[in-house]
Amino acid sequence: MKNKLGPSLEALRQLNNVSIHQLITGIMSSSTYYRFTHDGTDISAVKFIQLLDRLDSSLTDFINLHSPEDITNQQFFTTYLHSVSTGKINERSLQTLLLLLQKVNNDRPTPRYLHYIWLTQSCLDHARKQPYHFQQDLNRYFTSITTWTSSSLIMLGLSAPFIPFLSLSSMFSTVCEAFDAHLDRFDVQKAYSYFLVNFALLTILNQSQFAFIRVSKLFLKHKFLDSTLTMSVYVRLINLLNVWLNHPETFSASQLRPLANVLRDFNEPVYADQLNEFSQLFEHNFLTDHPSVLRHPLYQVF
Predict the structure, then answer these.
(1) Does 273 reside within a domain?
(2) What is the 8-class DSSP label of residue 27?
(3) How many domains are contained in the chain?
(4) For residue 15, what are the contacts with CB-CB under 8 A and spacing of at least 6?
């Protein structure tokens, strides 16, 4: 089946009276754009989000133009990431996506739509500081998988913050082997980054030294994990904490403090604030004689 995203994006471009040259410069070639909009060729979620941003269009605008007869994996992952990029969750866009998913699932119930609903609602719950309605459903789904596909791995990468830490720990080795077998796809590489960074942060928050050592070794193995600014800062954080764990005599809390400023300088205020809060809590909890409770400021990284 041909990809239907391209024609809808082209309609949105014409609606916004933006030239093709203005839209694609620095993102893709004109031939790639033509194949995407006319021949049904896929492009990466990152490039699609860049095109949407350049059109200054909301998720609602795109959904209104795109036929809701079916929602493909690429459509869901692209629109979901567009709603949670840079750490600032767009509740309105997520709510629109959730309503669309519920409508499509009511018309043609499938497990895939249910999984999308569980993830989208979990992210909304997180933004609203509410209990996760579908945490156990997500947990049962992922722990029951025997054959991992690219789509299920991407889904796991996005769902990692909403799955109980013990479950993630128990499936960690199996999942990493599955990711390694699918790394020829860029979107799987990105999902692997989400999974490993969030899992590493959860090991810190759950004070699991064994699990942290396991995941930190993979950051040395895979160089693609720091492919974005945000990821590179968090990889730096994890590497510094690895130094603290293995060579505490060479570690200083002052090494953590500049990381938040790096994110702030590159217009990532949400991540900067949570990283600054984490650094303060970590220093007070582990590096002083009067520890406090380490809460969950680092819970979701995209």
Answers:
(1) yes
(2) T
(3) 1
(4) 65
Which residues, 6+ apart, have CB-to-CB distance to 199 below 8 Å?
A: 160, 168, 172, 211, 215
In the Cβ-directed half-sphere of 223, how many Cα atoms lie within 13 Å? 0
Domain that residue 256 falls in: 162-302
SS3 call for 197: helix
In the chain, which stretches have pLDDT less than 50?
A: 1, 291-299, 302
Cα–Cα dist 182/153, whole Å: 9
* DSSP letter (8 states) at residue 134: T
Residue 88 in domain: no
Report the alpha-carbon distance of residue 271 to residue 263 in Å, rounded.
Answer: 7
**Closest CA relative to residue 302, chosen from 84, 34, 56, 114:** 84
Identify whether 198 is part of a domain: yes
How do residues 69-87 score in pLDDT, each as one tens digit?
A: 667 777 788 888 888 865 6
Cα gap 141→239, rounded to integer Å: 32
The answer to whether residue 301 is domain-embedded is yes
Q: Decide: helix, strand or coil at residue 146.
A: coil
Alpha carbons within 13 A on the beta-carbon side of 195:
26
Which long-range contacts (C-beta less than 8 Å, at least 24 apart) are formed by 104-109? Answer: 104/68, 104/69, 104/70, 104/71, 108/70
Please tell me what DSSP assigns to residue 26: T
pTM of the model: 0.70
